[in-house]
Structure prediction request, 202 residues.
Amino acid sequence: MGRTFLEAVAKRRSYYNLGDGVVTDDSRVVELVDSILATMPSPFNVQSARIVILFGKEHHALWDIVSDELRLLVAEDKFKATKRRIDDAFRSGRGTLLFYEDMSTLEALKHAYPLYADKVDIWSEQCSGMHQFAIWTALEDMGYGASLQHYNPLIDKSVARRWSICDDWRLIAEMPFGEAKDTPSSRRQTSPPADRMRVYGL
Prediction:
């Protein structure tokens, strides 16, 4: 959309009312994920990030799984509101990205570099976070709204069965995206950025 990187970062927000309209061809979303998987850094270039992209009925199936799992936990009198939120904010969108980390590659990294073994899981979370942020920002720049959700580990087994997910993959987050139907609330600063930064030697 012609924005600078910093403009795109500032524009990225959470949207909780999504539509399934085509903002851009679905193949462009696949190309975006392919590009980010190819370029994001990872510790010792381990490339442990794995991403599953769901469109159409597969996207709907994910959020049906979420609803089914929550139905077992949420009180009956409150479930209707829970289901409505899932349907309007997530299931109603164009698709969902599932962010995974491949634990087998991380275990191999721990064995290869035992001196850093206790840091590998932390680096894995950081690596996944970079993928999430980059894709979220790029989706926003394409014209899609998105949000980041964490229904794992509640849904892990059902999702793995539905899409034959490898046992070594650990689900980190879910990102529904679609046509932005709402205006997000203004960004709140709990403290000024200057109070959260230190500069030396300028």
